[in-house]
Specification:
By secondary structure, this protein is mainly alpha-helical. 69% of the residues lie in helices and 5% in strands.
Length: 404
């Protein structure tokens, strides 16, 4: 009887075009489209930034002739094929105002007595004024590349004048660092907080629409009363609906993982080493462990969503009641992205956050059986409690016939 009811509810959901788009099309196509669009936009923007003509104010006080030659005669070569227009008719204050108004890209100011400082073997100061924002970081890299080239030439000349072989390294220490973190651990630091966020959100959103339709939607269509007259107990009817809601949420999370993998594989700019690391994250053991965490969480989401939908008078009211659930769920998921957060005896007991932390630990390969057991236990208890509340809600006549 339960399977018959579940099949009936499943067919109702599958016939709904919105459900197919939400649970299949969006998770599967979102990441490939998103990653490819981002790659093309970033490549295009980087190319434009490298080829854009920069306008730079140069204030040398009659000195720094060599850098001036580098900037004017060799700028195109050293600035990654871009061109640089040099202005020498502005003061420092005027240049700063022009940079703030974005009429200049930068002001390069050499201190008075710059050449004398260099001649005496002392450090000479150059001050660069520019807007240090995300915008223009490629262009700033071109300018600082020229300054680095200039510094390298001055260093080589200075050591030659001192009678020192330029090949001799004057740095007294050579510190070598070896990163012993595995590829999975390094990737976990980069995407370990990002992936759980996506899986949990897709698991939640995959539950919302079917839960809304199978309870509040049936109330609105007047078919719930007819369903209650069939030779099945209310618990069987509820379980049939519940199976469909959980299946949709779990399926949405699974499809999002597949879409994420397709998206990574379709982007040509991702290094082969990272591609291999992503493939290792999607090993069968890791995927099974992640899904085993998502299952009780999806059961919790489904039970809460069904409870609210059963209580609602209409489809629209159910959507309004479910929106706070999305907002409340985002907070612990977002907390899992904060650097320094990790799976511990405390975070293992915090709903939703424990799943985020556990998935991150599984991806890194650092999850311990004791902490995972705590996560499973807390999730199972939470899911059981939510399902119990849902069954009580479905058994109340005042909730079932609240639209009357």
């Amino acid at each position: 009887m339960i399977l018959t009811l579940a099949r009936k509810e499943f067919l109702d959901i599958v016939r709904d075009r919105r459900t197919l788009i939400t649970n299949l099309v969006v998770p599967l196509l979102l990441f490939p489209i998103l990653f490819n669009v981002m790659e093309k936009v970033m490549s295009s923007q980087t190319k434009k930034a490298r080829e854009r003509t920069l306008t730079v104010a140069l204030i040398t006080h009659g000195g720094a002739a060599e850098f001036r030659r580098i900037l004017l005669s060799e700028g195109n070569l050293l600035a990654a094929k871009g061109t640089i227009d040099v202005r020498e008719d502005v003061s420092v204050e005027e240049g700063r105002q022009l940079v703030e108004s974005e009429d200049l890209d930068a002001v390069i100011h050499f201190d008075p007595g710059f050449d004398q400082q260099l001649a005496h073997g002392l450090p000479a100061r150059i001050t660069v004024y520019s807007k240090q924002t995300d915008k223009g970081h490629v262009e700033r890299g071109r300018l600082f590349g020229l300054l680095q080239e200039y510094e390298d030439r001055l260093y080589e000349r200075r050591v030659r004048e001192l009678g020192i072989d330029p090949r001799i390294d004057l740095t007294p220490l050579e510190i070598t660092q070896h990163n012993l973190a595995s590829e999975k651990e390094r990737l976990a630091g980069i995407i370990g907080g990002f992936l759980p966020y996506l899986f949990i959100i897709f698991s939640l959103t995959g539950c919302l629409h079917p839960a809304t339709d199978l309870a509040a939607g049936e109330k609105e269509r007047g078919t719930l009363e007819t369903l209650l007259t069939c030779p099945a107990t209310r618990l069987q009817i509820l379980i049939g609906k519940f199976i469909v809601v959980v299946g949709n949420g779990f399926f949405s999370a699974a499809v999002s993982m597949l879409g994420l993998y397709i998206g990574f594989r379709s982007v040509a700019q991702i290094p082969d080493q990272m591609q291999a690391g992503i493939a290792s994250i999607l090993e069968m053991t890791t995927v099974i462990a992640v899904f085993s965490l998502l299952l009780p969480l999806t059961i919790f989401f489904a039970a809460v969503a069904l409870s609210l939908s059963i209580y609602a008078k209409s489809f629209k009211e159910a959507q309004s009641l479910l929106m706070p659930l999305v907002m409340i769920s985002i907070i612990p998921v977002y907390a899992g992205v904060i650097p320094g957060m990790e799976l511990s005896t405390t975070t293992a007991l915090i709903p939703i956050l424990n799943v985020s932390m556990a998935i991150k630990a599984i991806i890194a390969g650092s999850a311990t059986p004791q902490l995972l057991a705590m996560v499973y236990a807390s999730l199972t208890a939470l899911a059981a409690l939510a399902l119990f509340v849902c069954s009580k809600m479905f058994g109340r006549e005042s909730a079932i016939f609240r639209s009357a």
